[in-house]
Structures are given as structure tokens and as C-alpha cells.
Amino acid sequence: MKNIVITGATSFIGIHLIRRLIKDNNNKLHLIVRENNRKKEKLKKIEKEKNINIYKIDMNEYSKIKEYINFKPDILIHLSWNGTRKPQRDDEILQENNYLNSIDLFENMVELGCKKIINIGSQAEYGISDKIISEDDETSPNTWYGIYKLKLCNEMFNRFKEKDLNLYHIRVFSIYGIDDDDNTLIMSSIKKLKQNIDLELTESTQNWNFLNVNDLVKAIEIFVKKDDIKTGIYNIASKETKQLKEYIEELKYIVGSKSNLLFGEISYPKEGKVSINPDITKIQSNTQWREEITFEQGIKEIINLYEEK
């Protein structure tokens, strides 16, 4: 049986990942959640599953994690990170603490015998670019969030390169799906579109890329199961990139809304217009992972859930 430690277990990605991994009876999941976790209802549902242990440990206690864990972890999946949305992305002290706590976690997991670390990174590590982005491209993050995500990536590979470990840094782009935060563009837009409320938007001419969360966790599961994937950084995103404006127009069509789309009513942020156009050649050539859920299918799934409620 594989002992899999997952931090950030009640996060958007975490919940979907747990639902997928728990289907395999060979997996024993050890979930690290905050002491004062706000998602108590999700925790209650998880606790009923077999092969799950829950540990209430704050990030600033990762240096003491060996006081809580008395087994040999096979795999660490690190999702936990504070301040993933604005304005906290620009909080230097908060983001530095995320980095330092994560290093403490990695050190302790390796000392306990962990042989595989799957760390979740972000497209924010690349900074602003209007080009196709591959894992080998120059990184130039323009937020403290991106800076410390990148620093953790580099430190993980530098610190543990001499050890016999499988190390993976997964750069996630724009993820959507059921249970996502209500304030994201997709979720907030669906809510307004269903009520025929006009949407005030930027010009939305930047390139964008949406991947359904279920396709993301399928990819992460491949890294969990396979031990022969080359160590390194991997972009995980949809095969389809197009103007954000096109996605929003498609969203309106799928919902069947009468809302007006008021493009240009909102200015771009001071950092500038952020485009994402990821190259996923590496993940596709090194694994059998392929995106399965179209944008239309993913949106319809969210809408159907709304209607059931």
C-alpha cells in the first residue's frame, strides 16, 4: 500500500484529487489540513472514507511534522499555499513564509524516507509573456507569489538532486470546475449569466487557456502511479488556447443568457495584460496523459449542478 501525504487537502484541487486517488484501494491517504479549517463540511465527508487519515497541522508547524507522522511516506503531494489570490499574492512576507514552510516540509518528508515529491507550481512563475510558454523558457515572475513559487521549484531540485528521489514540479495554468471558488471568472460569470445580469469585463483580448480540474487530477495521478517519468518541471494545461473573449462568448452561449458582454468596461491591472499560451508537449511526450473534458462539457457539468441545487 502506498502512503501518500497530501497538503492543502481541502483546496479546490485537493478535494478532486482525493476523490480520484481514494478509488484505488492500494492508496492510503494522509491529509494535512489547517487546524482551523473553514471547510468542515468537506472534511466530514472525507473522514468517512476508508484508507484516510487526517492531521490538523498549520503550515508554520511543518518543521515539527515528524511529531505527527510516525510512518514512512512514499509520496508527498504539496498543494498547500497561503495567499493564492490578490491582494495577498503581493504580500512579500506571507509568500516568503510559504516558501520557508514548504522547505521545512520537504526536508522532513525526505528524512522520513519519502522517495517522490509532486509539488504544485503556477503559471505565475513565468510572469507576463505573449509567447507560447515551454518549461525551458525564461522565467520572470512579477508577483511575490510567482517569485516564491519559482524559488521553491529551484530549491527543491538543487537541494535534493544528489538524493535518489523522483521530483516533479507541476506548473498549473487556469483551472476550473465544480467546487471552484465563487469569485473566479468562470464561477462568478455563470452566476450572473444565469440571472441575465450584464458582465463588465476587460477587453479580454489576451490569450487564455482553461483546463477542467478533473483532467488536472488525472495528470497528477499518473505521476503518483508511475515511477519512470523523468524528473523535472511539467506544464499541465488544455491543448486549446484562444482569446479570453472567445471563452466568455462561448460561456454565454452555453448558459443561454441574455446578458450583455461589456468588453472594455474594466481596465487591465497595473501589471499589464496577462496572456497564457502553454506548451504541453513535454507532459504529452513523457506520459500517456491527454485532456478529455472539453470546455463545453465542463461548463455544462457546473450548470447542471447549479440547477440540481
UniProtKB/TrEMBL annotation:
Pfam entry (one): Epimerase
InterPro entries: Epimerase_deHydtase (IPR001509), NAD(P)-bd_dom_sf (IPR036291)
Gene3D superfamilies membership: NAD(P)-binding Rossmann-like Domain (3.40.50.720)
Domain NAD-dependent epimerase/dehydratase span(s) in chain numbering: 4-237
Family: Belongs to the NAD(P)-dependent epimerase/dehydratase family.
The protein's name: NADH(P)-binding protein, PF13460 family
